């Protein structure tokens, strides 16, 4: 099968600024997280049919940051707080929309809000290594990953989630929402 031509989103001022401010917390995982964020933005843009609003870019930048800043896989609240802290700097008025995107991105059921649903699906495409590619399609996932490689992203998740589950056996996947 031929590689489908997809131009991945690789730079957005809001995303780059937020990631740069958290460079120390991200440490060696900076390129891994950055690529995850931009793969998700690319998938989200494909699902949404065009460029995303600034508040969605902020949500993507912060959506998993709490893993590093709160040092936990129970990170959704910490990630939403980080996004809220940066909203004024980027003149983003819809802070509640940002918080909803972050809080609902591991929701198990579909959302009635189209932007929230495409955000959720975009993250699912990336977290499943493209196995659940849906409307994005496997050829486009391969094209995006060729431009923004995983760099050990899934190994990082597996190791971190295994460690968290061992320490919290009654709530091994705290980021999932019904």
What does this molecule look like?
The chain has one domain: Hypothetical protein af1432 (Orthogonal Bundle). 59% of the residues lie in helices and 0% in strands. The protein has helices at 13-21, 23-26, 30-48, 54-62, 66-69, 76-87, 95-103, 114-127, 138-147, 153-167.
Topology:
Elements: H1 13-21, H2 23-26, H3 30-48, H4 54-62, H5 66-69, H6 76-87, H7 95-103, H8 114-127, H9 138-147, H10 153-167
Summarize the structure.
Helix content is about 60%, strand content about 0%. It has helices at about 15-20, 25, 30-50, 55-60, 65-70, 75-85, 95-105, 115-125, 140-145, 155-165.
CATH third-level topology: Hypothetical protein af1432
From the spread of the alpha carbons, the general shape counts as globular
Which architecture does the CATH hierarchy give at level 2? Orthogonal Bundle
Q: Helicity level, as a percent range?
A: 55-70%
User: Which spans of ≥5 residues are poorly predicted at pLDDT below 50?
Assistant: none
Beta-strand content bin? under 5%
Count every helix, treating DSSP H or I runs of 4 or more residues as helices: 10
Distance between the termini: 37 Å
Question: Biggest sheet, in brief?
Answer: none
Record field, number of beta strands: 0
Key descriptive features of the protein:
178 residues, Hypothetical protein af1432, single chain, globular, mainly alpha
């Amino acid at each position: 099968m031929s590689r489908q031509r997809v131009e991945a989103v690789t730079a957005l001022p809001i995303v780059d600024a937020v990631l740069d401010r958290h460079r120390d917390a991200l440490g060696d995982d900076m390129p891994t997280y950055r690529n995850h964020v931009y793969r998700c933005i690319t998938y989200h843009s494909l699902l949404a049919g065009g460029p995303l609003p600034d508040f969605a870019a902020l949500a993507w930048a912060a959506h998993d940051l709490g893993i590093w800043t709160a040092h936990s896989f129970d990170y959704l609240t910490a990630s939403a707080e980080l996004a809220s802290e940066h909203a004024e700097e980027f003149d983003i008025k819809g802070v509640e929309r940002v918080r909803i995107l972050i809080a609902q991105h591991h929701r198990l059921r579909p959302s009635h809000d189209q932007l929230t649903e495409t955000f959720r699906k975009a993250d699912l495409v990336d977290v499943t290594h493209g196995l659940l590619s849906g409307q994005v399609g496997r050829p486009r996932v391969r094209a995006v990953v060729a431009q923004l490689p995983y760099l050990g992203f899934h190994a990082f998740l597996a190791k971190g989630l295994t460690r968290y589950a061992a320490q919290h056996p009654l709530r091994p996947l705290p980021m999932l929402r019904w």
